[in-house]
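Dock A1CAB; give full complex structure.
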Amino acid sequence: MSEGALWLVGAGNMGGAMLRGWLAAPGLQRPITVIDPFIEQVPQGVTLLRELPSGDEQPDILVLAVKPQQLDAVRGVFEQKTGAPRLLLSILAGVETETLRQAFSVEHSVRAMPNLPVSIGEGVTALYSGTADNGVRAEAAGLVAPLGLIEWIDNEALFDAVTALSGCGPGFLFRFIDAMASAGEALGLPADQAMRLAVATVKGSGLLAAQSTEGPEVLADRVASPGGSTREGLNVLDAEDRLKHLMRETLAAAARRNAELAAAARAS
Ligand SMILES: NC(=O)C1=CN([C@@H]2O[C@H](COP(=O)(O)OP(=O)(O)OC[C@H]3O[C@@H](n4cnc5c(N)ncnc54)[C@H](O)[C@@H]3O)[C@@H](O)[C@H]2O)C=CC1
Ligand SMILES: O=C(O)[C@@H]1CCC=N1
């Protein structure tokens, strides 16, 4: 049975990834309309509008996937409408549910933090809502379930940390893959082969970590034969907790920026 319309406002890197994830998975029966002034095209079966419909037309579900700095333009159009979407799901980094609830006059807003692998159904989406009842929570979870793992976050204050870890995380891991490949190249491997080896190694290790009942520390020890070469390499990463410090600084910088975006959204 067809369900109410879903409007996806902004289909750039992340909105586009969610759209691809939804279309690749069976089950989403809703008509989808993308509102984006700039993207070139949308997949077959999806309606593309260059601007939000004026007048009182409203979607059943509104998914906000613009940059936080673009929120005001979207909010401005909804302020002119009577009524409100039944469910608001926002993926905007740093913008709080209460800010959204007031801006869009919705009863419930659900904040989501997906990550780029949602495009292949292998992402993780963190969810938070301070007001949604079980029915709304189940609906929000059902919407993002085809995109990968779901993690509910109890405390919105932790959302900046979640964003830094899993939202930004693919960006950090892509850098890691690059660094691994170029280190292989520095040891004499052809660049394309080094990249294939690095990508396959990260993919396989991620899958193994996800499936294993043992933690990454134990798995690392499985690779490191006593007196062997992995241990020598691990000693470099572990010296003075180098890698740990680097990741802490990396995530802290990202979390700080999320907090700044939240403050700016509250003030606007
Ligand atoms: N890129 C990522 O991996 C992740 C991004 N996010 C969040 O997703 C949101 C979008 O980020 P990206 O996709 O990376 O940015 P992006 O710049 O790739 O996409 C934004 C899209 O919004 C469109 N847009 C601009 N003004 C608009 C308007 N007034 N109405 C409708 N559409 C408009 C742009 O044409 C563009 O396609 C941000 O709020 C970000 O915090 C969340 C998780 C991960
Ligand atoms: O960089 C950003 O602001 C967004 C939030 C999480 C990933 N990308």
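Observed: The chain is about 50% helix and 15% strand.
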